[in-house]
Amino acid sequence: MRLSIVIGMHLTLAAWAWHTQLDAPAEPAPLPMVVRAIALSAPPPQEPPRPIAPQAKPRIPSPKPLPPATARPAAPAQQTAMQTAASTAQQTPANVAAAPQPSAPVMEQASPSPVPMPVTAARFDAAYLQNPAPVYPRLARKSREEGKVLLLVQVSASGEADNVQLKQTCGFPRLDEAAMDAVRKWRFIPARRGAESVAASVVVPIVFRLEG
């Protein structure tokens, strides 16, 4: 049918061109239009779609029926728990004893520390003691030896010189020894702590000086 329509159109165009040539003056003939009939090939028939085979679903094994659960009576357990709680409640007062309350600490009043009694130092310069002066050595006078000796004396509670030591020398051994010999024989007023006589130390100075 398409081929018939194309040929008819070509014939119509050829007739129109012929009449035009008769009416119009002679002109150079145009180039002929070449028309070629092209047979249109019919499209190949489409194959019908193949039916899709249904996929086999995996068979799920049916679960085996569980054996019927045997219900256990809960009453004995509850009774046992109640009996245990009751026995515990009965035993608790017997086992738990009231803790004794801590007694309040007794505040001991600190006794005041005794006030130390003042100590009176020992004395050796009392007139009634009549302590003799050291002897001036003859060789020391001849050599014109002079100086001051300091003696450290440990006086007992009875007033005697228990120990005599040289605290400071005068530079002349003869004078130092003469002073120590004299003080060893002296009597002292012992030191006192309150009304009590106590042993104590006292420093005794001895001066050696030449006259004229």
From TrEMBL:
Low complexity bias: start-end ranges: 71-94
Highest taxon in the source lineage: Bacteria
PROSITE patterns in the record: TONB_CTD
Domain TonB C-terminal: start-end pairs: 121-212
Family: Belongs to the TonB family.
Alphabetized InterPro entries for the sequence: TonB, TonB-dependent_transducer, TonB/TolA_C, TonB_C
Main location, first listed in the record: membrane
Membrane topology: Single-pass membrane protein
Region Disordered: start-end pairs: 42-115
BP-aspect Gene Ontology terms: protein transport; siderophore transport; transmembrane transport
Protein name as it appears in the record: Protein TonB
Keywords, ordered alphabetically: Cell inner membrane, Cell membrane, Membrane, Protein transport, Signal-anchor, Transmembrane, Transmembrane helix, Transport
Pfam families recorded: TonB_C
Taxonomic lineage from the root: Bacteria, Pseudomonadati, Pseudomonadota, Betaproteobacteria, Burkholderiales
GO molecular function: energy transducer activity
A GO CC annotation given for this chain: outer membrane-bounded periplasmic space
Protein purpose: Interacts with outer membrane receptor proteins that carry out high-affinity binding and energy dependent uptake into the periplasmic space of specific substrates. It could act to transduce energy from the cytoplasmic membrane to specific energy-requiring processes in the outer membrane, resulting in the release into the periplasm of ligands bound by these outer membrane proteins.
Pro residues compositional bias, start-end: 42-52, 60-70
Locations listed in the record: Cell inner membrane
